[in-house]
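Journal club side-thread
Mid-discussion, someone asked how the predicted structure for our own chain would compare to the paper's figures. Pasting it here so we can look after the session.
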Amino acid sequence: MASLSSYLLLSAMLFCLGLAAVLVRRNAILILVGIELMLNAANLNFIAFWRFSPNPEVLSGLMFALFSIAVAAAEAAVGLSLIIAVYRHYRTTDTERINELRS
């Protein structure tokens, strides 16, 4: 059975991978994927701390994770619709180019 530290290490690696995707990528869709990775790392932390807490019968960590998943789904829907609107206007999803086209 894995320990809490192994889950936290995995979560930290996922978060760093998502942060690197957000900071390095210029494509808006890949930036959204990086944000989703960071949210999944936070969910993994919620579940790990809930599972290894002294009282796992209380479903607090699970409720936080479910709420976070719902917020992430709404964020993805709104973000993708904004990206589609920007693409229809500028014909690109490159964030550097969109910033240059601002008038």
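Post-session note: Residues 26-100 form a domain with the Helix Hairpins fold (CATH 1.10.287.3510).
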